[in-house]
């Protein structure tokens, strides 16, 4: 079957990544921001898998696996932090937090 | 194949934009689920069956459910209205510009002439047995390390959840 | 020679020591201690000066100077400035007056200033003045002369403004200082020219090359030196500070603004006689300035009604005579008139001081009158001074003025001498006017005058009166003495020096004419002020216009105000209001503004905002991608292209 060229996959991954990046920077709800981060990871995963298939190297797929695992751990921790920070607040807005100042 | 690719690509992009721009976080989660499904299909076209399953099970199944729980937890009694324009000055426009710049630059990189792809990969490329083989022999260290990462995450979450009142 | 050097150095430094001692220890000692220190210093200086003068005077004519170089003050490239003393008869003449008359005035001040709260400061300033004046006349090079020149200007400023809580006095001091500084600049420019043409600023260096420098450059040097002399000696056009300087205490007026400081210009020009001998144009200018100033001041003095102002204008006039004399080439004649003038002018001021003191500070002669009976000593001494200055023989002024007139005619300055003759007539007139208005007639004042007899005030005036009376007979000894100073370059520079060696050699027709003029002036004054006051009122009414002109000194003060002060204040206001805030403050303000803007900009990154940090990371990523895309990737593809 005619293969989809590599560059198409990579372009798609780039587009997804940028959508996730802009979304992260523009939105203020922390949960939405985390979902944008998930998009960025997936874009990276897509690129890795495309390269793996292209060069016949399994390492790419292994790496996707690692990324999924780490993303899961990170999502857990990040959500725990979000819950702790915003538990008693009325507005769920990242701009209200400036504890990192200094 | 090509048609499948383009359909999935369209779904991916469309849902990604939906995720990023929805007012309600729950809508974003739903969009993200569809996004993951399309991505799993693309993985299948890339001869990565194991990964496609992993994507559905772990990502869509576990992580997004976690998101839903947190949304439910945080929005009891609240109206999670996300105000459109940010209070932070000079944030949206530079962000969008950086995004466009990044895209343009990546496109330049992507457009280079890649080495001619090898012939179609071996038939067992990406199957579970070969994946397991690769994972537990060549990349054993990485596998064990991710186990440690998961352990750290668990400890962290347990510690944080057990805290009494913390005000920020 | 060595002892003479030591003595001369002592003469110079003793007043400095006195001033420092009074300044430092004065506050801790009783009041009179300051007066005693100052007077003791002056007395010792006086004695030592007499000793030095007598010693040198007995030497043969060629060895009558003492030139000592005490070291090199500065060595700047090709210019070497020594630090030395030149004590020749010219310098000694001045030194004798400074220490002699100076001592008498110090003695007088001990009584006159007794009730002043700044008694000690006064004596410190007076000794300082004496030191700087001695430095001026004892130096052997122009730089140290200029140091002394500036020093007397400073002392003058301090002493004119002595009553510092009177705004008028402060303004007068400032005016004097500013005009003096103009003169200082003139001398400095002359020094620059001297260095440029002769490579030296010491007297020897410059005078030896005077002939070689050539008339054009020398003329300019002479003119610039004249600027300095005009400022210091209160000649036209830089004279307006002198009448205002009368705001200072009377002893100050006597010492500084009559006997010594204002004659520094005369000394300067006499000292630089080689320059003026070889630059006739400059010398001519000097003579013109002197003669015109003499007449100018004499006219103004006729209508003034402040006793000290009349004396101030008379000082300006008499100095005009001296300046004319040295400009015309009769250097010794100028020095002789300086000597006699010091006697009678100091006498007049001190006697006037007694009057002012006894009237409780009144200086307006319209409120005086009839004081002859009430203050006999003041009257008789003042009368002696008045007669002396009017040129009545055998008093001193007759001889010295007459010598100058003689010299003027003999050296072919008919017009200028005519001016001087008219000035002499007017001098007799206004001085006797002053005498009559103050001492004759009925008392017109409000307070009862007392007649305090203060020993320290009475003795000096009596001594000065004696000197004014007999000083004229010092002509021949002085001529012989000064012959050692002036070379052969002018007929009046050698023994004979413009002075009649003996009375029998006076130009009798001229002398007789001057005497008659004096009598005429006295008679006119007598008529107008004693016999027929109504005549005077008629004159006043008839000549109201000219009278106003003279009363305001030809309106020169307002003219200077408009020409000089107004633009200066405008410039200062401009600088203060525009230039300073915009540029001088503006530049630091811009710099600090830039720094705080930078700070504000940097603060953007420290907000603690998550999204900000995310944006920063995104921008970093974009930059990295750009680097990859344009540097590495471009390099790779061009390599690939070359390889193909």
Features:
heterotrimer, A: 102 residues, mainly alpha, Helix Hairpins, 3 helices, elongated, B: 168 residues, globular
Concise overview:
With 102 residues, chain A is an all-alpha fold. Chain A has 3 helices and no strands.
- Strand percentage of chain A lies at under 5%
Report Rg of chain A. Answer: 17 Å
Give the uncertain stretches of chain B in residue-range form. none
How many H/I helices of chain A? 3
Helix/strand structural class of chain B: mainly alpha
Spatial separation of the terminal alpha carbons of chain A: 58 Å
Q: Main sheet of chain A?
A: none
The tally of structural domains of chain A comes to 1
Global geometry of chain A: elongated
Rounded mean pLDDT of chain B is: 84
Give unreliable regions of chain A as ranges: none
- What string gives the helices and strands of chain A in order? HHH
The major beta sheet of chain B can be summarized as: none
The string of secondary-structure elements of chain B, in order, is: HHHHHH
Topology:
The complex is a heterotrimer of chains A (102), B (168) and C (644).
Chain A: H1 6-26, H2 30-55, H3 59-86
Helix pairs in contact in A: 1-2, 2-3
Chain B: H1 2-21, H2 25-45, H3 49-74, H4 92-110, H5 128-137, H6 140-161
Helix pairs in contact in B: 1-2, 2-3, 5-6
Chain C: H1 2-25, H2 31-57, E1 66-76, E2 79-87, H3 89-112, H4 119-138, H5 142-160, H6 167-198, H7 203-208, H8 210-213, H9 215-232, H10 241-244, H11 250-259, H12 264-271, H13 273-278, H14 280-301, H15 307-328, H16 331-358, H17 371-374, H18 376-390, H19 396-410, H20 414-439, H21 455-470, H22 475-482, H23 508-531, H24 533-542, H25 544-551, H26 556-584, H27 586-603, H28 610-643
Antiparallel strand pairs in C: 1-2
Helix pairs in contact in C: 1-2, 1-4, 2-3, 2-4, 3-4, 3-11, 3-16, 3-21, 4-5, 5-6, 6-9, 9-12, 9-14, 11-16, 12-15, 14-15, 14-20, 15-16, 15-19, 15-20, 16-18, 16-19, 16-21, 18-20, 18-21, 19-20, 19-23, 20-23, 23-24
Task: Describe this structure as you would to a colleague.
- The complex is a heterotrimer of chains A (102), B (168) and C (644).
- Chain A has 102 residues and is an all-alpha fold.
- Chain A has a single domain (6-88), classed as Helix Hairpins.
- Helices cover 74% and strands 0% of the residues of chain A.
- The relative contact order of chain B is 0.06.
- In chain C, strands 1-2 form a two-stranded antiparallel sheet.
- Chain C starts with a helix and ends with a helix.
- Chains in contact: A-B, A-C, B-C.
- At the A-B interface, helix 1, helix 2 and helix 3 of A face helix 1, helix 2, helix 3, helix 4 and helix 5 of B.
């Amino acid at each position: 079957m005619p293969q989809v060229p590599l560059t198409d996959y990579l372009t798609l991954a780039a587009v997804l990544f940028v959508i996730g990046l802009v979304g992260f920077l523009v939105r203020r709800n922390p949960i939405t921001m985390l979902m944008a981060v998930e998009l960025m990871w997936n874009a990276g995963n897509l690129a890795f898998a495309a390269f793996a298939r292209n060069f016949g190297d399994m390492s790419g797929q292994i790496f996707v696996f690692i990324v999924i695992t780490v993303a899961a751990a990170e999502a857990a921790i990040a959500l725990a932090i979000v819950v702790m920070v915003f538990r008693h607040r009325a507005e769920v807005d990242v701009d209200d937090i400036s504890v990192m100042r200094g | 194949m090509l048609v499948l690719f383009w359909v999935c690509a369209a779904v991916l992009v469309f849902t990604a934009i939906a995720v990023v721009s929805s007012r309600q976080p729950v809508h974003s989660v739903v969009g993200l689920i569809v996004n993951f499904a399309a991505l799993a299909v693309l993985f299948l076209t890339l001869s990565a069956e194991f990964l496609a399953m992993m994507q559905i099970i772990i990502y869509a199944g576990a992580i997004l459910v976690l998101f839903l729980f947190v949304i439910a937890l945080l929005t009891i009694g609240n109206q999670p209205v996300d105000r459109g324009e940010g209070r932070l000055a000079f944030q949206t426009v530079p962000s969008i510009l950086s995004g466009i710049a990044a895209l343009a630059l990546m496109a330049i990189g992507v457009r280079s002439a890649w080495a001619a792809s090898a012939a179609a990969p071996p038939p067992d490329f990406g199957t579970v047995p070969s994946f397991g083989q690769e994972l537990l022999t060549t990349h054993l260290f990485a596998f064990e390390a991710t186990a440690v990462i998961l352990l750290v995450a668990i400890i962290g979450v347990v510690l944080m959840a057990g805290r009494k009142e913390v005000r920020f | 020679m060595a002892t003479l050097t030591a003595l001369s150095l002592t003469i110079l430094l003793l007043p400095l020591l006195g001033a420092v001692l009074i300044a430092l220890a004065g506050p801790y000692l009783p009041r009179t201690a300051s007066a005693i220190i100052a007077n003791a210093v002056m007395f010792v200086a006086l004695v030592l000066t007499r000793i030095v003068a007598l010693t040198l005077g007995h030497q043969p004519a060629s060895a009558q100077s003492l030139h000592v170089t005490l070291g090199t003050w500065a060595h700047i490239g090709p210019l070497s400035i020594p630090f030395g003393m030149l004590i020749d008869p010219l310098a000694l003449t001045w030194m004798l007056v400074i220490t002699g008359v100076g001592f008498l005035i110090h003695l007088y001040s001990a009584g006159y200033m007794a009730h002043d709260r700044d008694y000690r400061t006064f004596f410190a300033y007076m000794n300082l003045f004496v030191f700087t004046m001695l430095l001026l006349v004892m130096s052997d090079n122009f730089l140290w002369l200029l140091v002394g020149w500036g020093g007397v200007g400073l002392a003058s400023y301090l002493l004119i403004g002595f009553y510092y809580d009177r705004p008028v006095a402060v303004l007068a001091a400032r005016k004097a200082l500013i005009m003096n500084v103009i003169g200082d600049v003139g001398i400095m420019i002359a020094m620059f020219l001297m260095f440029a043409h002769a490579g030296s600023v010491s007297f020897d260096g410059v005078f030896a090359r005077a002939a070689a420098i050539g008339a054009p450059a020398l003329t300019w040097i002479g003119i610039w030196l004249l600027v300095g002399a005009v400022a210091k000696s209160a000649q036209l056009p830089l004279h307006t500070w002198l009448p205002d300087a009368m705001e200072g205490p009377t002893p100050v007026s006597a010492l500084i603004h009559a006997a010594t400081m204002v004659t520094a210009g005369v000394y300067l020009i006499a000292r630089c006689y080689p320059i003026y001998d070889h630059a006739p144009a400059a010398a001519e200018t000097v003579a013109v300035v002197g003669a015109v100033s003499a007449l100018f001041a004499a006219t103004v003095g006729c209508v003034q009604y402040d006793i000290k102002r009349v004396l101030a204008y008379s000082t300006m006039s008499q100095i005009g005579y001296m300046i004319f004399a040295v400009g015309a080439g009769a250097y010794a004649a100028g020095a002789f008139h300086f000597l006699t003038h010091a006697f009678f002018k100091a006498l007049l001021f001190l006697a006037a001081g007694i009057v002012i003191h006894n009237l409780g500070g009144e200086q307006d002669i319209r409120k005086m009158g009839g004081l002859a009976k009430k203050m006999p000593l003041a009257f008789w001494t003042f009368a002696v001074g008045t007669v002396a200055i009017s040129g009545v023989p055998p008093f001193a002024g007759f001889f010295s003025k007459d010598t100058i007139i003689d010299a003027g005619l003999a050296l072919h300055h008919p017009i200028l001498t005519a001016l001087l003759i008219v000035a002499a007539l007017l001098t007799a007139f206004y001085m006797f006017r002053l005498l009559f208005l103050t001492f004759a007639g009925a008392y017109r004042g409000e307070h009862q005058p007392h007649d305090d007899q203060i020993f320290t005030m009475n003795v000096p005036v009596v001594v000065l009166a004696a000197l004014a009376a007999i000083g004229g007979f010092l002509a021949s000894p002085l001529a012989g003495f000064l012959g050692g100073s002036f070379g052969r370059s002018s007929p009046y520079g050698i023994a004979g020096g413009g002075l009649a060696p003996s009375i029998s050699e006076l130009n009798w027709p001229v002398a007789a004419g001057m005497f008659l003029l004096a009598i005429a002036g006295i008679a006119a004054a007598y008529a107008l002020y004693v016999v027929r006051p109504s005549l005077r009122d008629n004159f006043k009414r008839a000549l109201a216009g000219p009278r106003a002109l003279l009363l305001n000194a030809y309106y020169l003060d307002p003219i200077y105000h408009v020409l000089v002060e107004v633009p200066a204040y405008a410039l200062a206001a401009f600088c203060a209001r525009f230039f300073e805030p915009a540029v001088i403050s503006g530049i630091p303000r811009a710099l600090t503004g830039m720094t705080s803007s930078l700070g504000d900009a940097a603060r953007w990154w420290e907000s603690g905002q998550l999204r900000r940090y995310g944006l920063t990371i995104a921008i970093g990523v974009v930059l990295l991608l750009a680097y990859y895309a344009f540097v590495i990737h471009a390099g790779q593809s061009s390599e690939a292209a070359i390889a193909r």
